[in-house]
Write a structure and sequence with these properties.
alpha/beta, Rossmann fold, eight-stranded mixed beta sheet, six-stranded mixed beta sheet, elongated
Length: 487
């Protein structure tokens, strides 16, 4: 199943409105690692420190940058993913979460024009056009001067629909370096340079795999946010950045829209859905959790590192994360693992993604040490040094399972360093056929045991609208079955 690129956005003229609107921009880079996360998080932290209500967004399937943006803003960061979400759904979510804010900051991903194909489909530039927001471009100036102006000018002319309003120079070597780069960019492109950040002696964000370390694992995360706010205020003209922002034009949303994807929670009795959320399992989209609540769930937070057993639940959701960094503690909590096994054998609906899938296996090997785990699936994992799968996935459900009807089409993403060392199962028994991506084995994904479904693929609730109702319906069926047995 090949995902067809959407048409390039046609941008209508902004409609007038008497309502005060928030203003915003998209922070983009020339490539991954250009420093846009440092700039984006720093600007959000600086604006929040100055007393403004700033709402952050992250483009693409990202948990880690979004976590730092959330911490900086003091409120949830929401993901905008043009590949996973239909355009109207994406805009619906964006405008809904913009309501009541003063400033909007969207952090892009990879390079400004990097997409999934020759046309750059689903790239950051295209998202900025859809949102009608200007670009603040972050440029790594390492070992370059006048060439930076050529790079910025190329981005400026590559797609005339894209408006680059400001540039932040990153990794500047000194005053003379800054002066020639700044004057070159402004002279040849006419775009103002609104910041110049020197090379840092120490990374505020230590790197993990292809990105930065998650804030739950970062000692002194609050201090890091404060440092980034300091750096933004010292090296970026924050007031000028505010003036470069564009208004968020969507009067119909301020008048009571949106509808559909972001409505009120359902009335009636709530089912209890547990969420294992701790240092090991931290990859949860706010939209996913909110979708569960809207569908009729009461969320119960669980800590697999510290809790002795599962509480009374109707369903369990185990997200992704880095279980390898907490392998010893996860393996040592034997009472919790026993409780999890008992509930799975008794039919508790359990939905697990990536790190959650590993946790349900027999064991994982990290750095030569083996850590026994839940043992619900007879799989032994090893953490490799290189990515084993990375990118978007498209799947079709072909086998009966506890959550998705056969024939359901699912788009998601996978990012893992784990590999399967030992599994004697048959790939044909897995729930989904992969039309894009790697999956678990043999071009398929989705291990099934009783009411447990575990996948390497992560899903976003706005891109897979059947997901949250499926978990809630499974929870209702499980609650009903228990009542029938006890009654």
């Amino acid at each position: 199943m090949e995902k067809k690129p959407k048409n390039k956005a046609e941008v209508p003229a902004p409609a007038p409105s008497a309502i005060k609107m928030p203003h915003g921009l998209v922070v983009a880079g020339l490539s991954g690692g250009s420093g846009k996360s440092v700039v984006a998080v720093g600007l959000v932290a600086a604006l929040a420190r100055q007393g403004f209500k700033v709402v952050p967004f992250k483009k693409g399937p990202d948990y880690i940058d979004a976590g730092w943006l959330s911490l900086a803003a003091g409120r949830n960061c929401y993901n905008l993913d043009p590949y996973l979400m239909p355009r109207e759904t994406l805009l619906d979510s964006f405008y809904h979460h913009c309501c009541g804010s003063e400033y909007i900051l969207v952090e892009g991903n990879r390079g400004l024009y990097d997409g999934v194909d020759l046309e750059g489909s689903y790239c950051t530039a295209e998202l900025s056009v859809n949102l009608r927001l200007p670009i603040l471009l972050v440029v790594d100036c390492t070992k370059a001067t006048r060439t930076i102006a050529a790079l910025v000018g190329g981005c400026q002319k590559f797609d005339r629909r894209v408006e680059i309003r400001g540039v932040v120079l990153n990794r500047i070597g000194g005053g003379r370096h800054e002066d020639i780069v700044r004057r070159s960019v402004e002279h040849y492109t006419g775009i103002p340079v609104v910041g110049a950040m020197p090379r840092a002696g120490k990374d505020v964000f230590p790197q993990r795999h292809l990105g930065i370390t998650p804030c739950p694992e970062h000692d002194g995360a609050d201090e890091a946010i404060s440092t980034l706010a300091d750096r933004a205020e010292q090296y970026i003209d924050v007031k000028r950045v505010r003036l470069l922002m564009g208004p968020v034009y969507c009067p119909e949303h301020w008048a009571g829209f949106p509808k559909g994807n972001v409505g009120k929670p359902r009335a009636g009795e709530k089912v209890r859905i547990g969420i294992i959320r701790d240092a090991a399992f931290q990859f949860y989209y706010p939209d996913n959790l909110e979708a569960l609540v809207r569908s009729g769930a009461e969320l119960v937070k669980i800590n697999a590192l510290e809790d002795a057993a599962l509480p009374d639940l109707d369903c369990l959701y185990i997200g992704g994360g880095f279980p390898e960094t907490s392998g010893e503690a996860l393996s040592a909590n034997q009472t919790f693992l026993a409780s999890l096994r008992d509930h799975a054998f008794c039919g508790l609906p359990i939905y697990a993604e990536c790190g959650g899938l590993i946790y349900l296996g027999e064991s994982m090997v990290v750095g030569g040490r083996e850590f026994p785990l839940a043992g619900i699936f007879p799989v032994h994992f090893t953490l490799a040094k290189k990515p084993q799968a990375h990118g978007y996935t498209d799947m079709i459900v072909t086998m009966a399972n506890p959550f998705y009807p056969e024939g359901t089409e699912i788009s998601g993403h996978e990012f893992r360093y784990s590999r399967i060392d030992q599994w004697e199962g048959d790939p044909a028994s897995l729930a989904c056929r992969m039309d894009r991506g790697v999956g678990f084995s043999g071009g398929r994904d989705g291990l099934i045991f009783k009411n447990v479904l575990a996948m390497y693929t992560h899903v976003h609730a706005l891109g897979t609208p059947a997901w949250a109702p499926a978990l809630v319906n499974a929870a209702k069926m499980y609650r009903k079955s228990r009542k029938e047995v006890s009654g």
